[in-house]
Specification:
Blueprint (H helix, E strand, L loop, with lengths): L11 H12 L3 H18 L10 H19 L10 H8 L3 H14 L1 H8 L3 H5 L1 H25 L18 H15 L7 H18 L18 E2 L2 E2 L1 H9 L3 H19 L4 E2 L17 E2 L9 H12 L45 H7 L2 E3 L13 E3 L2 H16 L8 H8 L6 H15 L5 H4 L13 H27 L8 H4 L2 H19 L8 H6 L3 H5 L2 H7 L5 H16 L9 H8 L4 H7 L9 H8 L35 H10 L20 H5 L14 H27 L6 H14 L9 H15 L6 H8 L7 H5 L1 E6 L5 E6 L1 H17 L2 H6 L1 H8 L20 E2 L6 E5 L2 H6 L7 E7 L8 H12 L17 H8 L2 H4 L7 E5 L6
Antiparallel strand pairs: 1-2, 3-4, 5-6, 7-8, 9-10, 10-11, 11-12
Helix pairs in contact: 1-2, 2-3, 3-4, 3-5, 5-8, 8-10, 9-10, 9-12, 9-13, 10-11, 10-12, 14-41, 15-21, 17-21, 17-28, 19-21, 26-31, 27-29, 31-32, 31-33, 32-33, 33-36
Length: 976
Amino acid sequence: MAAQPQPAPPAVEARFVDLCKELGLGEGVSGEAAALLDEVKAALLAVPSVGGRSAKDAEKLCFAFVLYCAVKLKGRKEGSGVRLCEILKGCKLKYDDFFKEMQQLGLKIEKILESRYGQDWEGQLELKQLEGLVNLLADASRFYRKAYNELFSNASTDQEPGLATNTPDYILFGWYLFLMLRSRSPELFKDLVSCIHGLVAVLAILLIHVPAKFRCFTIEGSSHLIKQTEKGVDIVASLCHNYHTSEERLKEMMGKSHKAIEDFFGMKALSASKCKTENLDKIDTDGLMCFKGLIDEESFQRNLEKLEKLCNSNSWEGELDLKLFLSNDYVPSAENASGGSTNLGCSKRAFETLASPTKTIKNMLTVPCSPSSPASGGSVKIVQMTPVTSAMTTAKWLREVISSLPDKPSSKLQQLLSSCDRDLINDVTKRVSIVLEAIFPTKSSADRGGSIGLNCANAFDIPWAEARKMEASKLYYRVLEAICRAESQNSSVNNLTPLLSNERFHRCLIACSAELVLATHKTVIMMFPAVLESTGLTAFDLSKIIENFVRHEETLPRELKRHLNSLEEQLLESMAWEKGSSLYNSLIVARPSLASEINRLGLLAEPMPSLDELVARQNFHVEGLPATPSKKRAAAPDDNTDPRSPKRLCNESRNTIAERNLQTPPPKQSHIVSTNLKAKCQPLQSTFASPTVSNPVGGNDKCADVTVQIFFSKILKLAAIRIRNLCERVQYVEQTERVYNVFKQILDQRTALFFNRHIDQVILCCLYGIAKVCQLDLPFREILSNYKREPQCKPEVFLSIYVGSRNRNGVLGSRHVDIITFYNEVFVPAAKPFLVPFITSGSRPEDKKNASSQISGSPKPSPFPNLPDMSPKKVSSSHNVYVSPLRQTKMDLLLSPSSRSFYACIGEGTHAYQSPSKDLAAINSRLNYNGRRINTRINFDMVSDSVVAVSVYSPCRVLAHLEAHVLMYITHPSRV
């Protein structure tokens, strides 16, 4: 009997209908979702030709995205209660899997979503803010679990399955208590610092109420409670010391917690001094409150169930199920939280996260605390730098260094402002008030006519916003004074008036200060680039001030320097090239030949909104300024601008601006300057002046030439580092210089190739182009496979590249293609002249022979002599061996002879299954190789730790010998 044919699998539509039924969606939302799926399935379910995910993964992501769009953009108006967490559970996806792919999926169907739901569909989805909230709560939950386990016995949630335990679920009770407090005061928990204060308050309440037998320590000699008073241990002060919290804010949070407990459980808070319990023995009870019957044997389970029932409510927390954050269900793992991601359809090892700039501090670095007493052996306590410890230490800097400053300009700054051509003190103080009100609005949503949402800044409560405004203004005044002092000592600057009267300069400085305050608190309400949108600036504007800000604020913590470095990379790699960037207003002056293309694509920035327009947006009144905007835009106080400057409103169209620049004789073509051009060589007034103004330093160049040259030099440095990393990954280091030279020529002579694109797209094409002309066995798939391991990698970089085109009616449109289509259609025609010269030189047999005949033990000379040597330094061309001098703090602890130098060695073994002693001998022989001396100086300042992490912690360098992280000494340090 013939076998019966297997029934055909259900169609995509049928599986989607079943999912909608499983989620209990109403007919209206199900119909909307089905109609949307029918429009987008061709785009979302197509398996990409390069670097793609499996068809099954693509379907799960498509279903989740379509359902979330239908529910969020239409279903919410109809009262649908299906949340994102339920959608992801039905699709068997984790939060990080979903958020990682959403931007790419949105780009593919943005036209469809715009036609169905309006231009603001992306803002209504709030995906970026939700992703930030997920990462924030994941970090907070990991902190809470770790802190709880330091104080109390392991809870049942941490036990192996099937093991019996008598420990009550106090850890769950504390987490639910935190969620209850959050539900009653959501405005206090939109940033990580506030969350940690809330969790530490919960820990304090647990210490008072949980029976002492469940503690992991005793009061006498405890390392957890070290603050003592005459009456005993000061719990609040001890917790503040351990977790870097503010004692004032912690007491305030405990007061809110007591009020929430009273309201929810109907209990009365009693003074702890009146409660004679074993828990409070040897504890200073002054100012502490306790609740009878909160966590005793009779009422604990009942109170826990009551809290859990509250957390099961679908209405109180929006899209997320916060109970899951104490477990790992559908929550980012430790290595993927806070910006991390995992590529669906391809494996990503845990050590890959060490290469991410946002994770370097929490996964790789440690903070040495003060040495312990000699009695304990003189060991050093090492504290792992997690996102929480990073946030709390930077918040401590903000609290102790910045908050203690005066809330107005210092006498020295007032003297500098009043010594200008006119007194600028009032202008500066009023501007700070207006711009910071735009960033941290304190008007209620009803007054502003807005609605509170994740992406709405006025979801912050007024005291929080006022505190952040005060911190940002004090930081602004401090850095402004430092910059003024430095500029006044510049021999090229005769008068500070042009700089101090420049509106764009001040707004950039205020925006940078506000961004650091937001980054310190790790808020999810205003995530970058929201600060730019609030102040009317562009990414290119902000890129001008970052380096100066870091240079002139000497106390800035390393974590905030890394944040600014990360922002600058984002600005350089893509944001400054987006449509509407002020970069294009400078390019049409510095490179008149690009004006027609800039105008054709409509890339020029809109004029910066005036201060009175910012006032009108916020609907508040500032003394000395009109409460409503004037009909005629007020001229920006840039005294040196001309009518065609992009900083001032002009009745001419953008076409006229471009045409006039084409008609004027072009200035001398300024080729790309070398990477040793520093912004500090030019006064700031040149950087922020109108593009058409002549450079005050001298010469025939315009200020646009200066800003573009500085910007391009930064692009080249960033590209050089990324090219070097990528060439090392694909194991074609000898091609690094060729790829870099092609990139450099494209930036100089085919600048339009970068418009509306990401610089990594050009880097990838340059590498593949060199591989083709040099006849290397390096397919695009392998390049992308290695690129995915880079920390800055995002799928849309190689899956969705902008290509401008005109339709039959001559209207400019846009489409997005993958990297191979972009390479064939756009890159090759533009870059062919720069690739052709390498055809003969790269394919000659003698070149290949020379490339392969290098001495195996000798380091290859760097193709970028102007770039600083990185630390750790690679000391072998054929083995992944790196050395780095020890930190001074560690060297002090090692009583080493002055004639010896200590180094840290991280990397793979030189041979498989070889003992560490033989490895060290082999490393020493290479270090002492006489054919070429390695530079003795290793510069730590010029290259960020993220770059070091990228170079050191690639897969091939970590897997083999993680145990080779040893200390070794070299008897001939002069040769290193």
